[in-house]
Design goal:
Shape: globular
Strand order of the largest sheet: 1-6-5-4-3-2-7-10
Strand content: 5-15%
Pfam family, one: MptE-like
Radius of gyration: 22 Å
Number of helices: 13
Number of domains: 2
Protein name: PF01973 family protein
Distance between the termini: 27 Å
């Protein structure tokens, strides 16, 4: 990786690297480098151990420029390690869920049928389940008829219990607990479902199951289509169900995309919206030694504490995982996002 085109041009002029470039043993990236460039450069070799070796002379010459490259690379490698760990952890669950979901998937529509449906004439509101969602419920209810409303599954029952029925509910989590987010819902929303999500979800009562399914990077998706991204339709993965929902809003052709409950932080020292399923289940399992305050503290401290700029000014508490999502929104140039939450990290 190189910052200066002049240095790269000079290096290529004094030695013939053609054989190395053609064989793929040498891959050159020139600044500015995007995450997509790194994915392309490391395709096929990302599973191998990777060392980052800076050139000391260049680092002394333009420290800020080369340190930026190092930061981008280390962030990419960290995310790659997280993805590999996720694959190792969930591979068996994904396989079981996909096979169990096959009968129901055949009666659902591919997500591609939603692409372009807004034609740039409708605004889309994406609801996450961050702590600030509770502060925006009155506004959402007031302007509900003016918006296409996409809710992530964790926010569904918070909205439903407040008398708000979304148009679409996005579900991607393969764990059984994910089904709890949908229990008790009998509204008119349609589910947008990842084929590897918990198979229990499609066995719940309700009309929401007659929805849409997405493509998946999981290889078994080719059972449904030989060209899944073209025939089924794919949304971008940013590591969170909210990033998937925002990508869907883009591909629907939204005029504007608004975010609510997407705090990317822990406002008021809370990890989830009050009334969310994960919070309410403590009404049943809370004990003297397992308090909800302790559980909330564990969620906030599971990863090293980081600070991010707040939309209200100053700094707000966050962590590495949430910063990955924040970076996805910042680097997603296809659409201008707007957060209407009162307390959130600035992006």
């Amino acid at each position: 990786m190189e910052v200066s085109p002049e240095i790269l041009r000079y290096a290529l002029s004094i030695f013939d690297y053609s054989d190395f470039l053609e064989s793929g043993r040498l891959r050159i990236l020139l600044s500015p480098i995007l995450e997509e460039d790194l994915y392309s450069a490391f395709r096929g070799i990302s599973g191998f151990p990777i060392s980052f070796i800076p050139h000391r002379g260049s680092n002394h010459w333009k420290k800020n420029s080369y340190e930026e490259l190092r930061f981008i690379s280390e962030s990419f490698f960290h995310k790659k390690d997280v993805n590999i760990s996720t694959l190792t952890r969930f591979e068996k669950i994904w396989t079981r869920n996909f096979i169990s979901n096959l009968p129901q998937l055949t009666s659902m529509e591919p997500i591609r049928s939603l692409f372009g449906i807004c034609q740039g004439k409708a605004d889309v509101l994406v609801c996450g389940a961050g702590p600030s969602l509770i502060l925006s419920l009155n506004d959402i209810k007031t302007y509900r008829k003016n918006l296409v409303l996409i809710a992530v599954d964790t926010a569904l029952m918070v909205l439903w219990n407040f008398g708000i029925d979304p148009d679409l509910v996005f579900s991607v989590d393969p764990q059984v607990l994910n089904t709890k987010y949908l229990e008790g819902y009998n509204g008119n929303a349609k589910i947008v479902f990842d084929p590897t999500s918990s198979y229990h979800s499609l066995r719940l009562p309700g009309k929401f199951k007659n929805g849409f399914f997405t493509s998946s990077p999981f290889p078994l998706i080719r059972i449904l289509s030989s060209k899944p991204e073209e025939e089924i339709g794919a949304v971008d993965f940013g590591g969170s169900v909210s990033t998937n929902a925002v990508s869907l809003a883009e591909k629907m052709g939204a005029r504007n995309i608004l975010l609510v409950g997407q705090d990317l932080s822990f406002p008021n020292k809370l990890a989830h919206c009050k009334g969310a399923v994960l919070e309410e289940r403590f009404n049943h399992i809370e004990s003297r030694k397992l308090r909800r305050e302790y559980h909330n503290h564990k969620q906030m401290t599971a990863l090293p504490v980081k600070k991010a700029a707040s939309i209200q000014g100053g700094e707000i508490r966050t962590n590495e995982k949430l910063l990955i999502f924040k970076k996805w929104f910042e680097e997603h140039p296809k659409k201008i996002f707007g957060s209407i939450s009162e307390k959130t990290a600035l992006f």
